[in-house]
Amino acid sequence: MLYFWHSIGNRFLTLLSNMFTDLNLTDMEVCYKVFRKSLLERIELCEDRFGFEPEFTAKVARLCCPIYEVGISYHGRTYEEGKKINWKDGVRALYVILKYGLVRRSLS
């Protein structure tokens, strides 16, 4: 199950993240990520919850390493099944995209 407004919010946040990072990701908020330990050791993370995704994406983009997307099967959960995201998480993600995206632009 994928809620309509969650889908719209995810697309908007991914678009905004792509604009600031100059990436072309299809889903910035995907939770499956695989990286070499040597790359992860170069990144200092500050955010938690749903701010993690845009911070991590921005910091990986700054390193200019190649990013590959691999398709996965996804079956969305309902709130009764454990879905935890709400509109506040979207607002936080928006703030984090702007925070780390503006830092990147000033460093470039």
Note down, in words, how this protein is organized.
This protein has 108 residues and is mostly helical. It has one domain. The protein is built from four helices and no strands. The longest helix is centred in the last third of the chain and has 21 residues. The chain starts with a helix and ends with a helix. The mean pLDDT is 84.
Query: What is the helix content?
Result: 40-55%
Summarize the main sheet: none
Backbone shape: globular
Query: Would you list the SSEs in sequence order as H and E?
Result: HHHH
Query: Separation of termini?
Result: 40 Å
Helix/strand/pairing category: mainly alpha
Q: Using only CA atoms, what is the Rg?
A: 14 Å
Provide the descriptors you would attach to this structure in a database record.
about 110 residues, mainly alpha
Task: Give a brief description.
It contains 4 helices and no strands. The chain is mainly α and about 110 residues long.
Q: What's the topology here?
A:
Blueprint: H1 4-21, H2 37-40, H3 52-62, H4 87-107
